[in-house]
Amino acid sequence: MNNNDNINLDIPILGFLVNQPKHGYELFKELSDSDGVGMVYRIKIGRLYAILKKLEARELIRAQTKKAGSRPPRNIYYITKKGKELFLIWMGTPIDHGRDFRVLFLIKLFFIKRSAEVSIKEIFSIQKEECKKWLEKLRGSVKQSEGFESFEGIVKQYRISQIKGFIQWIEWCEEGVEQK
Known about the structure:
Helix content: 55-70%
Distance between the termini: 41 Å
CATH architecture of the largest domain: Orthogonal Bundle
Oligomer: single chain
CATH topology of the largest domain: Arc Repressor Mutant, subunit A
Strand order of the largest sheet: 1-3-2
Radius of gyration: 19 Å
Number of helices: 7
Number of domains: 2
Order of helices and strands: HEHHEEHHHH
């Protein structure tokens, strides 16, 4: 199973519709762009259409069928007010689990760099604080007896080093923002 299958992209996909409506294949091409989100996430077109149906059922987007010349009709997707509000809330909220950080936080940065509606400094700050909470919680769960001898100790130390890496990378990003 592809690890990307567990990532919830429902809300991030709304970001591609904030500035203008798009049809499904346009969304797929934008999501698959190897110079953009495609660098960190790969999606199958069938999964994208399933997400779009779910977003429409939740009234976060609406679809309008349009005919274009001799081509078959296609759905054009528009973000609703409710959808835009939810997307902006997501943008200002830290990623709450380490396993989602690599994909969702980078997607969030992709949108922040295209928008002035959310402060990149603020996002780095709140995400770093969230990562510190993960680190403290995990450190608190490590028993003195858990070392290299136990598998649990090995896994916990791996996770600790991963979270430390997230924090170090965020600090590197913050320095880059300060230099601008």
